[in-house]
Amino acid sequence: MPLSSSALLLFGATGDLARRMLLPSLYALHEDGLIAADLRITGTARSELSDEAFREFASEALAEYLPEDRKDDTKIASFLERLQYQPLDASTVEGFDDLAAKLGDISGGLSIFLSTAPFLFEPTIKGLRSAGLTGDNVRIGLEKPLGNDLASSRVINDAVAGAFDESQIFRIDHYLGKETVQNLMALRFANMMFEPLWNANGIEHVQITVSETVGLEGRHGFYDDTGALRDMVQNHMLQLLALIAMEAPADFDATSVRDEKVKVLRSLRAVKPEEMVRGQYGSGAIAGEAVKSYDDDLGEASDTETFVALKAHVDNWRWQGVPFYLRTGKRMHERRSEIVIRFKCVPHNIFAERGGKLAANRLVIRLQPEEYVRLIVMAKEPGMDRDGVTLREVPLDLSLTQAFAKARRRIAYERLLLDLIDGDPTLFVRRDEVEAQWRWIDAIREVWAQEEMEPKHYGSGSWGPSAAVALTERNGVSWHE
Predict the structure, then answer these.
(1) Which of 20, 300, 350, 468 could be disulfide-bonded to 464 (CB atoms 3.0-4.6 Å)?
(2) d(CA 139, CA 119)
(3) DSSP one-letter string for 120-161
C-alpha cells in the first residue's frame, strides 16, 4: 500500500462531527500543506446533496468553527475544490457501486473514515466489499461507538476483519490525538527524573478526572442507551490509565506502544461493589444558570448513569497496592480533564521539631480546558525562622500553551486524520485493547445488575454524589478539586 492515500472517503459527512471537527481539521491540514495537493475528499451520507451543495455545507461549517486567524478566503476556496459528494443509504448494498464510481481511481490508496451507528457497521462493510472498496490499498478508520459490550464489539470487529486485515484497521479514540496526552509519554519516557519514582515505591495513588458541565446536548437517544461508563470510561479514561501505567516501550511505534498498553488493560483487577459509585444529575445551577435534572432533559424517567467513580487496581509488580481513582460526569462543577499523580511523603521529616509540616508532592497533568504540567513541591517560606520553620506547597508550572506559544495548537482530529491518510497506526487502538477494555467494563455492569445498584442523585454544578467523596476519604484521600 502507498504510504499516503490519494483519496479520503468520509461517512457521515453531513453530521455534527463532520461540521465541528472533521472538515475544520481537514482544512487545517490543507492550509498547512500537510496533505498532498491531489488528495481527493469524498463525503457521503443519506442526505441528497450535489457536489456544490456539499461544498456550501462545508463552507458554512468552516465559517462557524474555524478560528478567525485561520480564515483565508483563497485557501478555503482551494480546499472546497477538493470536495465532492455522493448520497448513500448504507443499510443496503445498492448505491455502493455509484459510490465507487464517484471515487474513481483508487490505485493510489484510499482511506475511509467510518462514523456510523453500530447496527450499520455490518451492512456498510458488506457494501464496501461488494463495490471493490476493501482491497489491500484501502485502510479504514472506525469512530466509536464500536458496540455496547464485548459481544457486540466482537460482532463489529469480526465484520470489519472479514474485509480488512488488522493492519488496515484504525480504531479512533480522539483523546489519543490530544497534544497533552502525547506529551504524557514524553514526560515519562524522555525525562530521567520521574521514572525511578513511577511505581508503587514512589506513588501513593493516581486520580483521573474527566468532568463536563454540559448535559445531553442533543444526544438523548444515544446517551440514554450508553451512559457514562460506556461513553467515557470504556475508551478515553482507560486509554489514559494505560498510558500512565504502561512499561516503557522498546520504540515509539505502533506495535511497541500498543503491546505495552494492552498488558496494563489485561492486568486490571475486577472492581468490587464498594469500589464503584453510579450517579445521575438532578437540577441545579451551572455558571449561575439554573439547569434541569437528567430526567427532565430526557423527557422521561431513566436509571442511566451520568456519573461514575471507580477505584481501580493494576495487578502487576510496578503498581501493586496503588489505587487508580477514576471519576467522570456530566453537569459537574467545571469542565476539566486531568491526571493527578500523588507521590508518597518523604520517609522522615527533619523539620518536624521546628514546626515544619510536610505534604506529599503532586504532579498535575491538565488536558483541558488549559494544557499544563504542574509539579507541587515543598518550599520554605522566607524568614529568620525564630518561631519555627514554615513550609508550604509551591507549584512549578509548565504551561504548554505558553512554552510552545509559537506552535499552532491543533484539534485532535487533525493528527488522527493525517495519521490515517499516511498510514501510521501508533495513536489508534488495536482490537485486543478494545476487547480488554470491554471485558473490564462488562464485569462492572454485571456487578451493577447483581447488586441492583441504582444511580445516586447529585445536584448539577456539584462534584457528584457524596458517595464518590466517601470512596476516596475512607482511604484518607481527597479528590483534587
Answers:
(1) 468
(2) 21
(3) GHHHHHHHHHHTT--STTEEEEEPSP--SSHHHHHHHHHHHH
CA distances from residue 332 to 53, 215, 325, 329 in whole angstroms, order as listed: 40, 9, 17, 6
At 434, list the grid cell: 478494545
Query: What is the distance between the alpha carbons of residues 311 and 41, in angstroms, rounded to a whole number?
Result: 44
Q: Which pLDDT belongs to residue 392?
A: 81
Q: Which CATH class is domain 7-171?
A: alpha beta
CATH code for 176-411+430-473? 3.30.360.10
**Alpha-carbon distance 242 to 433, whole Å?**
10
Instruction: Give per-residue pLDDT as tens, 378-387.
Output: 787 787 766 7
pTM equals: 0.92
Rounded distance, CA 329 to CA 78, Å?
41
Q: Which of 148-152, 366-370, 468-472 has the lowest mean pLDDT?
A: 366-370
**The pLDDT of residue 479:** 94
3-class DSSP assignment, residue 97: helix
Q: How far apart (Å, rounded) are the C-alpha atoms in residues 219 and 299?
A: 13
Q: How far apart are CA 423 and CA 425, in angstroms?
A: 6
- pLDDT, tens digit (0-9, with 9 covering 90-100), for 9-57: 999 999 999 999 999 999 999 999 999 999 999 999 999 999 999 999 9
Q: Cβ(90)–Cβ(120) under 8 Å?
A: yes
| Structure-block grid coordinates of residue 131 | 463495490
What Å distances lie between residue 142 and 63, 113, 254, CA to CA? Answer: 27, 6, 17
* Residue 93, all three cell numbers: 448494498
Task: Give the range among 11-25, 150-164, 358-372, 428-442 with minimum mean pLDDT.
Answer: 358-372
Q: Measuring CA to CA, which residue among 195, 292, 242 is closest to residue 432?
A: 242
- Give the residue extent of every domain in the chain: 7-171, 176-411+430-473
- Detail the DSSP E strand segments found in 46-137: 83-87, 110-114
Indicate if the pLDDT at residue 401 is higher than 90: no
